[in-house]
Specification:
Blueprint lengths: L4 H6 L5 E5 L5 H9 L4 E6 L2 H13 L5 E5 L14 E7 L15 H7 L3 E11 L2 H14 L2 E6 L9 H5 L3 H8 L5 E6 L1
Parallel strand pairs: 1-2, 1-4, 2-3, 4-5
Antiparallel strand pairs: 5-7, 6-7
Length: 187
């Protein structure tokens, strides 16, 4: 499908948005429901997780949703240059001792640049203070453009898209009293 997601899978030329490490696909499906003018692809390496998102998308007859089972390390094999407009990363493993394995690290963003459109937007939604602080420090170091920075989406005037769609993990972290943060930036 590399270079053909729009023409051969979605049968349109709408922008493509990825959710990396999508788990059960709650965010992928939730975004697709709210934004029919965009195409969404959830990516995860575990098929059992993806099954739930696939089933929901089929039940709701969402034509703008796809799922891809692969490791994020291999993501550039599946998308062509300038094929993707945005990336969402929701509740990733913070990798406390392995910065290079963080899905929003400069190492991974360099891989994403192979298929991102110029000026592409990245979104991080996390319960991890470590990741939140990390990306806030990394953005100026990499000369990326900070677009939005919300330390706690549930105590401020956050866009509804951030609070209305909740993943399995988000519900778990909220029940435990965690703070949910959001940052978006242009690479």
């Amino acid at each position: 499908m590399k270079g053909k997601w729009g023409s051969e899978y979605f049968h349109n030329d709408h922008p493509i948005v990825l959710e990396l490490g999508c788990g059960k696909g709650e965010y992928t499906v939730g975004l697709a429901q709210r934004f029919p003018e965009l195409n969404f692809i959830g990516v995860d390496r575990k098929g059992a997780r993806l099954w739930r998102g696939c089933k929901t998308a089929l039940e709701q007859q969402l034509p703008n949703v796809a799922f891809l089972r692969t490791a994020i390390d291999d993501i550039f094999y599946y998308f062509a240059e300038n094929e993707v407009s945005e990336i969402w990363i929701t509740f990733p493993d913070p990798q406390p001792t392995k910065e290079r394995k963080r899905l929003m690290s400069p190492h991974f963003v360099a891989k994403y640049k192979h298929f991102l459109k110029p000026g592409a937007i990245m979104h991080l939604k996390t319960d991890s203070r470590l990741l939140y602080d990390y990306i806030r420090e990394t953005i100026p170091q990499q000369q990326w453009q900070l677009l939005e920075d919300i330390e706690d989406i549930y105590t401020t005037e956050a866009p509804s898209i951030l609070t209305e769609i909740q993943t399995f993990y988000e519900k778990h972290w909220l029940a435990g009293g965690s703070t949910i943060s959001y940052v978006s930036w242009r690479v």
